[in-house]
Amino acid sequence: MSLLIDLLQGFLLLAGVVMFGAGTLGLLRFPDTYCRIHALTKADNLGLGLIIAGLMLSAGSVLLMLKLLLIWLLVMLASALSGHLVAWEGDAQGIEAQRSTGTSAGKEK
C-alpha cells in the first residue's frame, strides 16, 4: 500500500510541476497580455492543486491537510483577483487583445 501511495504522490507532484511549466511556456509564447494572464492563472492554479494533493498524501494529520487545502484556496483567490486587476488595468490603458489573422480548423474564409 505504501508503494502505491508513493507512486501516486510522485505522479501528482510531477504533474504539478509540468503544469507550472506549461503556464510558464504560455507566459513566454502567447501573443498578448490577456492570453498570458489566462495561461498563468489556470495552469498555476491546477499545478499548485496537484502539488497540494500530492503533499496531502504524506501529511501526518488532518490539521496539516486542512492547512494545505486552505493555502491552495487562498492562492486561487489571490490569483483570480490579481489576474482580474492586471486585465482591468490593461483595458484601462487601452491594451487591445491580439486578433487571430489565420484561419482555424473548421472555419471557412
Number of helices: 3
Name the structural class: mainly alpha
pLDDT averaged over residues: 88
Report the helical percentage.
over 70%
Number of strands: 0
Strand content: under 5%
Low-confidence stretches: none
Task: Report how far the terminal alpha carbons are from each other.
Answer: 57 Å
What's the quaternary structure here?
single chain
Main β-sheet, in a few words? none
Radius of gyration equals 18 Å
> Which sequence of SSEs, written as H and E, runs from N to C?
HHH
Shape from CA axes? elongated
Note down, in words, how this protein is organized.
The chain is mainly alpha-helical. The chain is 77% helix and 0% strand. The protein is built from three helices and no strands. The chain has helices spanning 2-29, 33-57, 62-92. The radius of gyration is 18 Å and the shape is elongated. The mean pLDDT is 88.
Features:
77% helix, mainly alpha, 109 residues, single chain, 3 helices
Set down the secondary structure blueprint.
Blueprint: H1 2-29, H2 33-57, H3 62-92
Helix pairs in contact: 1-2, 2-3
Overview in brief:
The chain is mainly alpha-helical and 109 residues long.
